[in-house]
Amino acid sequence: MKKITINQSKQFVGETVKIGVWLANKRSSGKIGFMQLRDGTGFMQGVVVKANIGEDKFDQFKALTQETSLYVTGIIKEDTRSSFGYELEVENFEVISDSTDYPITPKEHGTEFLMDNRHLWLRSKKQHAIMKIRNEIIRSTFEFYNNNGFTKVDPPILTGSAPEGTSELFHTKYFEEDAYLSQSGQLYAEASAMALGKVFSFGPTFRAEKSKTRRHLIEFWMIEPEMAFYDHDDSLEVQEQYVTHIVQSVLKNCRLELETLDRDLAKLEKVTTPFPRITYDDAVEFLHKEGFDDIEWGDDFGSPHETAIANHYDKPVFIVNYPKAIKPFYMQVNKENPKTVLCADLIAPEGYGEIIGGSERMDDYDELKQSILDHGLDLETYGWYLDLRKYGSVPHSGFGLGLERTVAWISGVDHVRETSPFPRLLNRLYP
């Protein structure tokens, strides 16, 4: 007898197999019962017929409790009524370990209760689907960059300064020195790009921003490519190609999970290159026409502004060339309008906001040095970063994509807390 996993079912139609599972739910009526089985690779139904397994075994089935672990044996059958397409005609089962009083029952639970039990909530069908989509985005990210000549690098998590010159950092002691949890790997990725040409990093970042919005986490993961000899327009092309690639990969490989989440697939199918591009100036003018009288030139956009702009398009949209005064010190000045910089935010549709921020980086030593001073930053702290412009500087660009916001958008879930296995929120460090 072959021991298989649920996601291998289509390879064993008509065969008797054994699967290690948990009992997600069950129901019975008279002489037939139904098991909702899960094993980590997927969910499927097990059909238990009293006449096939005997009265004693059928009574044992009726006594099974939610999340009891089992070995089940039976015949794989096609099932066109289910979205999965297959079911198990159960011939026998063996209890591995009982589950008593499982707290997350098939009923409505409050968000705080579910978050307190996040270690168990992950087992649910919806959360399983979100994590599978997250994994596919990660897998296709590595595929995209490996196929396009990028080298993976790993910036440090402990840093001696703030890459973006902000005070919203987590401070710690590094023996006798002050250190901070990284808010971005960008500066180190730039150094790596000067050695390796095109690089990308993928790792955790931390923001001590006291925000409770549905778009924010305290700890989140960033994909951050940096590319030597790439200008701003070159970078925008990479961004739209990359986002298109991960969306199409999820559509291809996670269609069942998207259907589990009731995601509107038609909206994702529209995500193809090229993406619309509007300037910051045009965005402000558009917002005024839409009745947003609160926004003035020089202001950063908030969630309502980004949503209004995104709703005007049916795919992600670039907002380019923001005012220099509201952007970090390292961004290249736009020679056509020195009050702005060569940067872009990529706004996801359907109200999910910014998923990418990127720019061309300053490549002139004197300009960068002056910008560091203008921002009130310490030259000595950024000495190594200035060195990159001292020894063979070249035009270069990069960007950062926030994984959790991207998962939320592609999955269609309302809050980023469901896109991380164990999210860290303003008032949550448990479990």
Automatic annotation (TrEMBL):
InterPro entries: Aa-tRNA-synt_II, aa-tRNA-synth_II, aa-tRNA-synth_II/BPL/LPL, Asn-tRNA-ligase, Asp/Asn-tRNA-synth_IIb, NA-bd_OB-fold, NA-bd_OB_tRNA. It is found in: Cytoplasm. Residues 131-431 form the Aminoacyl-transfer RNA synthetases class-II family profile domain. It comes from Abyssicoccus albus. CDD domains: AsnRS_cyto_like_N (cd04323), AsxRS_core (cd00776). The keyword Protein biosynthesis applies. Its EC number is 6.1.1.22. NCBIfam families: asnS, PRK03932.1, PRK05159.1. GO terms for cellular component: cytoplasm. Homodimer. Belongs to the class-II aminoacyl-tRNA synthetase family. It is an enzyme of class 6 (ligase). It holds the Pfam family tRNA_anti-codon. The keyword Protein biosynthesis applies. It comes from the Bacteria. Keywords: Aminoacyl-tRNA synthetase, ATP-binding, Cytoplasm, Ligase, Nucleotide-binding, Protein biosynthesis. It catalyses: tRNA(Asn) + L-asparagine + ATP = L-asparaginyl-tRNA(Asn) + AMP + diphosphate + H(+). This is Asparagine--tRNA ligase. HAMAP family: Asn_tRNA_synth. One of its GO terms (biological process) is asparaginyl-tRNA aminoacylation. PANTHER family: ASPARAGINE--TRNA LIGASE, MITOCHONDRIAL-RELATED, ASPARTYL/LYSYL-TRNA SYNTHETASE.
